[in-house]
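A protein record pairs a chain with a discrete description of its three-dimensional fold. The following entry can be read in just this way.
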Amino acid sequence: MHRLKYDEVETGAQLPEQTFPVRRLDLVRYAGASGDFNPIHWNERFAKSVGLPDVIAHGMFTMAEAGRVITDWTGDPGCVVDYSVRFSAPVVVPDDDDGAEITVGGKVKSKNDDGTVTVLLTARSGGAKVLAKASAVVRLA
């Protein structure tokens, strides 16, 4: 895989948009890996009893999928210096064959004097913006 270099990046450049499928099975696997077994992430009855429309994806799962756009673009998962988001809407995951999708894109906000690049991300699912103020700072070769 090509490792992106600082000189190859221009302010305003668009990152390739990616769409990630999310099924209930993905949430169960993530719960096992993360230790987060909150029933809002796997039990429809419980999720609805607390006012949610259905089971929702873990926020950190959503954040991780968005982060993949950065690491796929740079070709180096170790280049991320800073990464932050605000969760603005849940990713609702129905119990069917399709589940949900998270679509993530990005844009280079700035090339910084210290050899890093700041990227703004957008993430949507089911027509809703699911991450707000999502940004990453990456150090490129």
User: Anything to note?
Assistant: The CA atoms of residues 109 and 119 lie 5 Å apart. Helices lie at 24-34, 44-49, 59-74. The first strand starts at residue 14 and ends at 22.
